[in-house]
């Protein structure tokens, strides 16, 4: 697998992508290059996977902090973060990644074409507890996709075929259950998924439940119930959690102080920020950040 990752890195460098997100001739395939610490994750109009090709990506989730090394990938979910940071990226040795977008219908189509009892068996598997690791077959398909990028004669037909291969390899791989569960939850969320995506992009702003319900063309009570069912919390709780997670990231990754972090994520009262932070993480901001740093140092 190491040779395949080296080939992917070489192909991306030969294409000569620029800093940030780079689109390709294949509508669902994007490439990323970052020589700085902060990175933006894919926008979440559609489900996606993000494969790390070089360097290490650190993401902050409500359940903790997770690092993704080369060959590991993120499966998007309703609660996926919008940003993260690299651990070792420089101008000469940047962070490289590839994302592939999906429509739920794409995944459903492949599932319907799979013979045998694989789909049923997937949901008997225990939930994986580790970061998602690519397999050789998946990397080979992605490498073929990148080779196809400049082949206009085959692009239209083969890109659709290869996308189905990617989906099949994800389903048949060790994290097929997790991938399908993500697709199912997004499909069931429907309009709520789009509203949740909007909140993620605008969590610093002030908005009301009435505004969100109007965007969804739902009554206030129906919207709140459906949002809480899909996301596990109310919209304003979701906004607060996003603010606190981002503030934690700012203090850990950028060494922001408590006041700057609170103001940056949209709080007007630092004392309110500290109360909310303690309620979510169980510790004051200073103590929480210090304990996490101590844990990282102990693990190195």
TrEMBL record:
Coiled-coil zones: none
Protein name as it appears in the record: AraC family transcriptional regulator
Positions of the HTH araC/xylS-type domain: 193-291
Keywords noted in UniProt: DNA-binding, Transcription, Transcription regulation
PROSITE patterns: HTH_ARAC_FAMILY_1 (PS00041), HTH_ARAC_FAMILY_2 (PS01124)
Any one Gene Ontology molecular-function term assigned to this protein's record: sequence-specific DNA binding
Keyword Transcription carried by entry: yes
Species annotation: Paenibacillus taichungensis
């Amino acid at each position: 697998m190491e040779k395949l990752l080296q080939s992917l890195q070489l192909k991306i460098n030969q294409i000569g992508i620029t800093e940030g997100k780079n689109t390709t001739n294949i509508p669902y395939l994007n490439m990323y290059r970052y020589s700085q610490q902060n990175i933006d994750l894919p926008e979440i109009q559609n489900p996606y996977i993000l494969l790390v090709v070089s360097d290490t990506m650190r993401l902050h989730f409500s359940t903790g902090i997770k690092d993704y090394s080369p060959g590991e990938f993120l499966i998007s979910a309703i609660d996926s973060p919008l940003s993260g940071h690299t651990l070792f990226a420089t101008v000469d040795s940047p962070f490289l990644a590839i994302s592939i977008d999906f429509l739920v219908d794409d995944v459903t189509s492949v599932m319907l074409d799979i013979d045998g009892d694989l789909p049923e068996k997937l949901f008997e598997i225990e939930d994986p507890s580790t970061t998602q690791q690519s397999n050789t077959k998946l990397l080979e398909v992605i490498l073929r996709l990148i080779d196809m990028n400049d082949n206009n004669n085959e692009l239209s037909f083969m890109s659709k075929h290869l996308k189905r291969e990617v989906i099949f390899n994800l389903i048949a791989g060790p994290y097929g259950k997790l991938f399908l569960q993500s697709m199912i939850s997004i499909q069931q969320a429907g309009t709520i998924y789009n509203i949740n995506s909007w909140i993620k992009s605008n969590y610093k702003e002030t908005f009301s439940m009435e505004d969100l319900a109007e965007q969804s063309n739902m009554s206030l009570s129906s919207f709140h119930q459906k949002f809480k069912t899909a996301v596990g919390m109310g919209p304003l709780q979701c906004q607060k959690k996003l603010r606190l997670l981002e503030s934690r990231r700012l203090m850990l990754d950028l060494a922001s102080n408590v006041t700057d972090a609170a103001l940056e994520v949209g709080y007007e009262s630092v004392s309110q920020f500290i109360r909310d932070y303690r309620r979510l993480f169980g510790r004051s901001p200073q103590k929480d950040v210090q304990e996490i740093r101590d844990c990282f140092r102990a693990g190195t």
